[in-house]
Amino acid sequence: MSSSSEQGSRSKSLDIEENQIDNNDHDNIHDELNKHELDKIYRKLDFRIIPALWCLYFLTSFGSNCYGLTLTMNSEAGHSLIQSLNLTSKHTSTASALYYVGYIIFDVPMNLVMTKVSPQSWLARIVITVGLVYTCYSALHNSGGVIAIRFISGVVGAGTWPGMSYYVSLWYPNDRATRRIGYYFTAAQMSAAVAGLVSAGFQKIDGNRGYYGWQWMYLTYGSITIAVGISLLWWLPDRPFRITKQSENKVKKLYNRYFTTSHPLNDTERELHRRDIEYRYKLLKWTWGDVVAIITDLRIWPLIIMYFGVVGTGFGLAVFGSTIIKTNNPNLSSINVSLLYAPIWLFDLGGILTITPFADRYKKFRPVIFCGACIIIIIGMVVTTFAHGSWNKYAGLLIAGYGLGPTVPICMSWSAEIFFPRYGDVGTAVSAALVSGLGNLGSVTATYALYSGWPEDRKRLYRDSNMMLVLITGVSIIACIVCYLIKDKVRQDLPHDKEEEIIEYNWMEE
């Protein structure tokens, strides 16, 4: 494409060739724009967006970590969730599996809704409903209630992770996305660590006013989550641009007036940002045929399997990490177990901060970085399983935590990189939802079939459960290699009905 074409027709019609080489277009834009000014703009956006997404993900992740810990809280006094509700291993494994089933069923529909509505309002809705449901945990009194409310928790939380990935794609180009996803993904690790510390504190007030420690934790957590969810309506900005003029009724105008925050950039910064990210605002219209096309695209399935392995391992350790620690060292008190659980996720945080920046800087090597992180996970799980001494086994959990950190952010940014050029906006949204939704079958496997779902494995110190996590992580490596080999060989031509699509930019006015 000639330089005159770049300068003269960028804001006009976008033909088939431009849609096929979005990433090359974006690289050319970077050459034209002042990189120093762009860096300042994205740092400014970071200060506004990343803390909000971090708090959002911290709170929605905290509930799952909280649930795993309440299974053992105050066990010496017979007041853990399992003991106080007389739960069996079948009850807990079924409840954990149904939680992820809720995610799997509703992830794609929730993310499709987000392409049509105000994204910041939808994300706030998720947080508020998660808080409401977890507040109800404090009223549980039988196994049926636990199973039902775990499923409901999955339903109301569906779309959280793919929704945030989609939201980031609206504000950041792909070569800046992995690091940002990694930044707020640290919230999951921090929430796991903080949950361990907080649960130790709530165990100290067990029995206060007739409530168990786990009931106090759910009440407190749910109330805080609802309050923060409401604040997100003003904290998170809406889309950076409004594409095509849309008629607004009185209700929508009133809502936008009181529940939509101002744009975080001034006019000059917005124009520079627009020029840098306008490639993202192509192919915004979609049909159910596009959704079917994405589902049947062969490239989505290796990405799902990649996510399946690493998330299965991650959530297996998130839910049963404290169980593994306790089994390896039975002399530890429940409070000490909670305190030792936290550093696993601090190491995970370290992996995110040290590795994800390289996945953005060297996009072509994302598959290599992903596979390297998976190898670190495998090494950690092998050490946890076969090392001599409880503390050596514990060190293996720290190693595995470090490897887990960068894997999920790479999966999400790579899926957007692969599916946006052909499918546009819906490709980013649906691929993220499919990868995280169906990939969560790994979480179902780890929480339903392994550890407490495999009682016979306890006497083996969960050796076979650990090795199953090693196996599915190895499958993730194989899937990553397959995805790399086919990503540029499948469906590279834009569909005929997309060839003549023309986007007229009507950027949002304050």
Number of helices, where a helix is a run of at least 4 consecutive DSSP H or I residues = 23
Ends: how far apart?
34 Å
**Contiguous uncertain segments of 5+ residues:** 1-21, 499-510
Q: What is the mean predicted local confidence, pLDDT?
A: 82
Q: Tell me what portion of residues adopts beta-strand conformation.
A: under 5%
Number of domains: 1
Which CATH class is shown? Mainly Alpha
By CATH, the superfamily comes out as: MFS general substrate transporter like domains
Largest sheet: none
Secondary-structure-derived class = mainly alpha
**Based on DSSP secondary structure assignment, what is the total number of beta strands?**
0
Q: CATH fold name, please? A: Growth Hormone, Chain: A
Please give the CATH architecture.
Up-down Bundle
User: Helix coverage percent of residues?
Assistant: over 70%
Rg over C-alpha atoms, rounded to the nearest angstrom: 23 Å
What is the chain-wise order of helices and strands? HHHHHHHHHHHHHHHHHHHHHHH
* Anisotropy-based shape: globular
GO molecular function: biotin transmembrane transporter activity; dethiobiotin transmembrane transporter activity; solute:proton symporter activity
Subcellular location: Membrane
Main location: membrane
Protein name: Major facilitator superfamily (MFS) profile domain-containing protein
Write structural notes for this entry.
It is a multi-pass membrane protein. It is found in: Membrane. This is Major facilitator superfamily (MFS) profile domain-containing protein. Residues 56-491 form the Major facilitator superfamily (MFS) profile domain. The chain has 510 residues and is mostly helical. The protein has one domain (31-267, 285-491): Up-down Bundle (Growth Hormone, Chain: A), CATH 1.20.1250.20. The protein is built from 23 helices and no strands. It has helices at 3-8, 16-20, 22-32, 35-70, 81-84, 89-114, 119-136, 143-157, 160-171, 177-203, 213-235, 250-259, 267-277, 288-295, 300-328, 334-361, 366-386, 390-404, 407-423, 425-439, 441-449, 463-486, 496-499. Helix 4 (35-70) runs parallel beside helix 10 (177-203). It is globular, with a radius of gyration of 23 Å. The two termini are 34 Å apart.
